[in-house]
């Protein structure tokens, strides 16, 4: 039997740094392959090559026995490969039916054939047990339902291979159960699946084959029956977990630096109380929609709070954002392009944005340009930002990791004592992640308190002194070392802890 | 180390000479540098001027140059105000209306006389304005108080615009469109669309003023008695340049200027970084309206008339056109006062030459529209060049 999709010595490197090396594997039609590996193991790069997003540096792929070299994502879609991404690619302002047909509306007399779209969409939704009218706007659906719409899209295109990338991270247990139902049906129809997940129990449940990637190489693979979870972990880790994270250079002091008491905003967060200590890295884990970013925004004075009090170094924290910054608070938002950086502006101006007032001289606040140049260059050097002339180079010309360092760095000149870091390593490559972890450790060692918000349990376990878990707007549990990954996840999902 | 070649080695010219590059690449580099230069629009204006002089000899006569400059100063002040607003990714459509209103305000306060035949129907007749002139007629420093009133009224309009944009999150286009309509209508209602003349000499002198003049000999072939002395440095010039220099320092050399750019490039990031975004927006709209009031002083003094329709018609086209031609982006985050200066120069030169060509007003506006289109296209090209440069 020929493989549906076969990889033959596929490799990809980025500027000489290998991301995937000599990957060779065949995927039988009708099989279900679990692809596992740590963050940065090369799963995304591999899937991006399948999807026509990046071109391999060497090696080749075959699709149904024929050479396959997609130049664009559209090529991949035409061959019958569908992606269900972690971050869904739906138009939230359009209806379910419009989303399903977005890449080719059937027409009648030159106009969109609404009746046919609705009928087709309805039958697709029935197959997936999604109980919504086809003209429902996607923005009104829950995350799990949106995912089913993505699957409906794949079914409509008659995709032979459906690739799921971390499909359950933002689903409730009920939604997860429904997804597995649908996956079972897809398999019964004879469709081929690639299932990427960190949740190894799910892989055992959904897949019949397992492939483990580490450092861009295929380390181990075989039928799922021969792959108990310990074997998966051994293959995935292969080295000490601590190698991914810098050693913590100081221990937290007993001094409370930041205190939140009874924070509440109806429908968003409920009676949240916690303390953060000087020098402590306090983790906050929660799924998408758990209220973790909302908590951060409210604490920073960007969103309203109906109840509760905040204190920084025993002084009450109130007023607008600017007052909280002056009191010593810093906030690195999860979305650096939209909220963190002035992309078109030079690196230096980005670095000095928060503290720019300090460079004003005289009644007109004339900018002391020499002091500005010196201070921003010093900040650049301290952060290890690799850039050209920071006075002129726009920050958008930097790599993701260096951009993120600038987002963190712009706060340093203001000398804050409490940092909220919301997903500080999102969209950053492995090497830069390590540098950002080191930077976070340095901030803590210097006596700042840090609230480290993340949806990657691994990095919280690797970096934090304590981990709080948030779910549906509430703090549900606090963990102390040694951390239990499964328990943290379970409490985030509000599943019974076993 | 000296720059001499090491002893014993004779430099061979054929080796040391830089490898011959294709002439095209060199030219491309230069065109690129020219396009990205701050002075690009100045060069463009000079080239345009020099290219047209042979066909339009009047263009370079002292009389025309004085005329050109006197047209430039009030427009420059308004455009400088617009530069601030465009830089925060806003737009101020109400500048023209503010000019009309402030022109009426100052005239009704300081006019030395007013004819009942013309103004008796105006709502201000009898209270603010009588046969004996405006409220402040005859008191010392009437002109100064009148000007202060103009600036205050303008600041109020700007404050309204700014608060609506910053606090109510209304789009600047809508807010200033509404103030444009309402303020212009209010100005016209105040005088029932009539002009107020008879302004005191102390005010009128602000529109001319011979600080430095040049005598260029008697004008020989003039049928009408024409001036033989040309005023090169006038009050409008001094006021406009002072305003422009102050604005340049404010935008490029102060903390406030950094905040203006920050708000224009990424308002959300600015907010999170503690930039007082609302205050910056309000201040910028106040600056814009106050600039319009200053221009209104210059125009009102030059016309020797308080005119409610001052700044009406296509005036806004000139202001935004000149600012954008200079290189300030309509999308925010990119603007310089010096660019606006050159943009105004180019725009005034363009209008002047089109007038000298005896084109009708309609033709002139058609050509101006085309030029603004070219400027917008050029902006796209420049932006692309800048991207590829980094």
From TrEMBL, chain A:
<keyword id="KW-0472">Membrane</keyword>
<keyword id="KW-1278">Translocase</keyword>
<feature type="domain" description="ABC transporter">
    <location>
        <begin position="251"/>
        <end position="497"/>
    </location>
</feature>
<dbReference type="InterPro" id="IPR003593">
    <property type="entry name" value="AAA+_ATPase"/>
</dbReference>
<keyword id="KW-1003">Cell membrane</keyword>
<dbReference type="GO" id="GO:0005524">
    <property type="term" value="F:ATP binding"/>
</dbReference>
<dbReference type="InterPro" id="IPR017871">
    <property type="entry name" value="ABC_transporter-like_CS"/>
</dbReference>
<keyword id="KW-0762">Sugar transport</keyword>
<dbReference type="InterPro" id="IPR027417">
    <property type="entry name" value="P-loop_NTPase"/>
</dbReference>
<keyword id="KW-0547">Nucleotide-binding</keyword>
<protein>
    <submittedName>
        <fullName>Ribose transport system ATP-binding protein</fullName>
    </submittedName>
</protein>
<feature type="domain" description="ABC transporter">
    <location>
        <begin position="5"/>
        <end position="240"/>
    </location>
</feature>
<dbReference type="GO" id="GO:0016887">
    <property type="term" value="F:ATP hydrolysis activity"/>
</dbReference>
<keyword id="KW-0067">ATP-binding</keyword>
<keyword id="KW-0677">Repeat</keyword>
<dbReference type="Pfam" id="PF00005">
    <property type="entry name" value="ABC_tran"/>
</dbReference>
<dbReference type="InterPro" id="IPR050107">
    <property type="entry name" value="ABC_carbohydrate_import_ATPase"/>
</dbReference>
<keyword id="KW-0813">Transport</keyword>
<dbReference type="InterPro" id="IPR003439">
    <property type="entry name" value="ABC_transporter-like_ATP-bd"/>
</dbReference>
TrEMBL record, chain B:
<dbReference type="Pfam" id="PF02653">
    <property type="entry name" value="BPD_transp_2"/>
</dbReference>
<feature type="transmembrane region" description="Helical">
    <location>
        <begin position="40"/>
        <end position="60"/>
    </location>
</feature>
<feature type="transmembrane region" description="Helical">
    <location>
        <begin position="98"/>
        <end position="119"/>
    </location>
</feature>
<feature type="transmembrane region" description="Helical">
    <location>
        <begin position="337"/>
        <end position="354"/>
    </location>
</feature>
<keyword id="KW-1003">Cell membrane</keyword>
<keyword id="KW-0813">Transport</keyword>
<feature type="transmembrane region" description="Helical">
    <location>
        <begin position="311"/>
        <end position="330"/>
    </location>
</feature>
<keyword id="KW-0997">Cell inner membrane</keyword>
<feature type="transmembrane region" description="Helical">
    <location>
        <begin position="72"/>
        <end position="91"/>
    </location>
</feature>
<feature type="transmembrane region" description="Helical">
    <location>
        <begin position="277"/>
        <end position="299"/>
    </location>
</feature>
<feature type="transmembrane region" description="Helical">
    <location>
        <begin position="172"/>
        <end position="190"/>
    </location>
</feature>
<feature type="transmembrane region" description="Helical">
    <location>
        <begin position="139"/>
        <end position="160"/>
    </location>
</feature>
<keyword id="KW-1133">Transmembrane helix</keyword>
<dbReference type="GO" id="GO:0022857">
    <property type="term" value="F:transmembrane transporter activity"/>
</dbReference>
<feature type="transmembrane region" description="Helical">
    <location>
        <begin position="229"/>
        <end position="251"/>
    </location>
</feature>
<dbReference type="GO" id="GO:0005886">
    <property type="term" value="C:plasma membrane"/>
</dbReference>
<keyword id="KW-0472">Membrane</keyword>
<dbReference type="InterPro" id="IPR001851">
    <property type="entry name" value="ABC_transp_permease"/>
</dbReference>
<protein>
    <submittedName>
        <fullName>Ribose/xylose/arabinose/galactoside ABC-type transport system permease subunit</fullName>
    </submittedName>
</protein>
<keyword id="KW-0812">Transmembrane</keyword>
């Amino acid at each position: 039997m020929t493989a549906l999709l076969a990889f033959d010595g596929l490799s990809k490197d980025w500027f000489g740094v290998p991301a995937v090396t000599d990957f060779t594997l065949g995927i039988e039609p009708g099989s279900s392959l679990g692809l596992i590996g740590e963050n940065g193991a090369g799963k995304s790069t591999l899937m991006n090559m399948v999807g026509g997003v990046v071109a391999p540096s060497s090696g080749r792929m075959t699709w149904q026995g024929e050479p396959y070299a997609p130049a664009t994502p559209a090529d991949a879609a035409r061959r019958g490969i569908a992606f269900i991404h972690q971050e869904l690619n739906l138009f939230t302002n359009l209806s379910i039916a419009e989303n399903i047909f977005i890449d080719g509306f059937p027409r009648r007399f030159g106009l969109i054939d609404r009746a046919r779209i609705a009928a087709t969409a309805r039958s697709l939704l029935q197959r997936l047990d999604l109980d919504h009218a086809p003209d429902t706007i996607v923005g009104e659906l829950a995350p799990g339902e949106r995912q089913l719409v993505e699957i409906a899209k794949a079914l409509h295109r008659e995709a032979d291979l459906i690739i799921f990338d971390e499909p359950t991270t933002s689903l409730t247990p009920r939604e997860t159960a429904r997804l597995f139902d649908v996956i079972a049906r897809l398999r019964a129809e004879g469709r081929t699946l690639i299932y990427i997940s960190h949740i190894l129990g799910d892989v055992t449940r959904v897949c019949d084959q397992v492939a483990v990637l580490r450092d861009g190489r295929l380390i181990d693979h075989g039928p799922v029956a021969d792959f108990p979870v310990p074997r998966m972990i051994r293959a995935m880790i292969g080295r000490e977990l601590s190698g991914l994270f810098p050693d913590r250079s100081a221990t937290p002091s007993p001094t409370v630096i930041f205190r939140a008491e009874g924070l509440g905003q109806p429908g968003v967060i409920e009676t949240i109380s916690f303390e953060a200590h000087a020098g402590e890295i306090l983790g906050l884990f929660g799924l998408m929609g758990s209220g973790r970013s909302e908590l951060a925004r409210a604490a920073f004075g960007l969103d309203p709070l109906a109840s509760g009090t905040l204190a920084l170094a025993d002084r009450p924290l109130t007023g607008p954002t600017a007052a909280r910054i002056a009191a010593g608070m810093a906030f690195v938002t999860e979305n650096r392009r939209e909220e963190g950086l002035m992309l078109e502006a030079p690196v230096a101006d980005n670095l000095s944005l928060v503290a720019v007032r300090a460079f004003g001289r005289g009644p007109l606040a004339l900018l002391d340009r020499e002091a500005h140049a010196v201070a921003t260059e010093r900040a650049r050097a301290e952060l290890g930002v690799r850039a050209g002339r920071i006075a002129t180079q726009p920050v958008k010309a930097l790599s993701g990791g260096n951009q993120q360092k600038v987002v963190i760095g712009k706060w340093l000149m203001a000398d804050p004592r409490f940092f909220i870091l919301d997903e500080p390593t999102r969209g950053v490559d492995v090497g830069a992640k390590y540098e950002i972890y080191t930077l976070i450790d340095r901030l803590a060692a210097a006596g700042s308190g840090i609230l480290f918000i993340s949806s990657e349990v691994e990095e919280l376990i690797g970096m934090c002194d304590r981990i709080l878990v948030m779910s549906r707007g509430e703090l549900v549990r606090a963990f102390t070392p040694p951390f239990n990954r499964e328990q943290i996840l379970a409490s985030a999902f509000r599943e019974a802890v076993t | 180390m000296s720059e001499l070649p090491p002893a014993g080695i004779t430099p061979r010219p054929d080796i040391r000479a830089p490898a011959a590059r294709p002439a095209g690449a060199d030219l491309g580099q230069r065109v690129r540098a020219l396009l990205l230069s701050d002075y690009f629009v100045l060069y463009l204006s000079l080239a345009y001027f020099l290219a047209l002089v042979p066909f339009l000899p009047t263009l370079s006569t002292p009389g025309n140059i004085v005329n050109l400059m006197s047209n430039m100063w009030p427009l420059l002040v308004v455009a400088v105000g617009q530069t601030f607003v465009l830089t925060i990714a806003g737009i101020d459509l109400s500048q023209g209306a503010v000019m009309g209103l402030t022109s009426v305000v100052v005239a009704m306060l300081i006019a030395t006389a007013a004819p009942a035949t013309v103004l008796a129907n105006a709502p201000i007749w009898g209270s603010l304005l009588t046969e004996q002139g405006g409220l402040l007629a005859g008191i010392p420093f009437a002109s100064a108080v009148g000007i202060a009133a103009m600036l205050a009224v303008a600041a109020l309009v700007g404050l309204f615009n700014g608060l609506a944009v910053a606090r109510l999150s209304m789009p600047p286009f809508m807010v200033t469109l509404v103030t444009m309509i309402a303020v212009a209508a209010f100005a016209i209602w105040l005088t029932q669309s009539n002009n107020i003349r008879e302004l005191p000499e102390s005010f009128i002198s602000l529109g001319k003023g011979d600080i430095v003049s040049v005598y260029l000999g008697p004008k020989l072939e003039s049928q009408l008695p024409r001036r033989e002395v040309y005023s090169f440095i006038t009050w409008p010039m001094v006021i406009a340049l002072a305003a422009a220099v102050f604005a340049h320092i404010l935008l490029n050399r102060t903390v406030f200027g950094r905040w203006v750019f920050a708000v224009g490039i990424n308002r959300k990031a600015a907010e999170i970084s503690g930039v007082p975004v609302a205050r910056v927006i309000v201040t910028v709209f106040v600056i814009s309206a106050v600039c319009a009031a200053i221009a209104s002083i210059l125009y009102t003094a030059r016309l020797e008339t308080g005119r409610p329709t001052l700044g009406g018609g296509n005036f806004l086209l000139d202001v935004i056109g000149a600012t954008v031609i200079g290189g300030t982006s309509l999308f925010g985050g990119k603007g310089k006062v010096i660019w606006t200066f050159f943009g105004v120069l180019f725009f005034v030169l363009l209008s002047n030459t089109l007038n000298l060509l005896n084109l009708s007003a309609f033709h002139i506006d058609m050509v101006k529209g085309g030029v603004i289109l070219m400027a917008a296209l050029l902006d796209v090209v420049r932006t692309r060049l800048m991207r590829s440069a980094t």
